[in-house]
Fold:
Amino acid sequence: MTVLPMVQHVRPARCPCCDAASRPVNGPLGMRGHGLRARQVYGPHDAGDAPQQVTVQARRYRCTACGAVVVVVPRGLLPRRRYSAAAIGWVLARVGLEGATTPVVRAEVCSAVVLGVAAAERWLAPSRWIDASRRGQLFPRLGRHGADSTRAQVAERTAMQLVALSARGSAGTPAPHLAFHGAALAA
Ligand SMILES: [Zn+2]
Structure:
């Protein structure tokens, strides 16, 4: 999670704004490295571990055709989310499949809660994740859900999709552990 990807490994294939090819056959490189931006990410290193807060480096690219700046986050992270994809999968499974309450689950993925910093605040992140999942905008590989589904239903179905994506399935592995690994793959 703290490993910085090499520039050429994560360079966008084409500009998402103007669709200019990143590596035209005859011509200059379209997406140029534009520096790094540090991001704080919450979540356990592995399913069931103590939560951590780590600093990761997102790489920025600038399109030489239209000037758009594209931020590429390391594998296992979702754009604009403060929690790792795996931690989000864990939360959705704990809430959606096991009926755990958000204060309990929050302490499992956020180290600040252990220290008491954020314990008093109402935790809105799971509702935002569920609403994004309903629109198909949480995990890029998963589809959208019906607009009439309740948050509980969306959480449950998203968690089951993540469980199904996990390659580590074996009898007796708890669903949140499977969803944790499936979510890392879905990011
Ligand atoms: Zn562009």
Q: What stands out?
A: The pocket of zinc ion is lined by residues 15, 17-18, 20, 63, 65-66, 68 (CB under 6 Å). The radius of gyration is 18 Å.
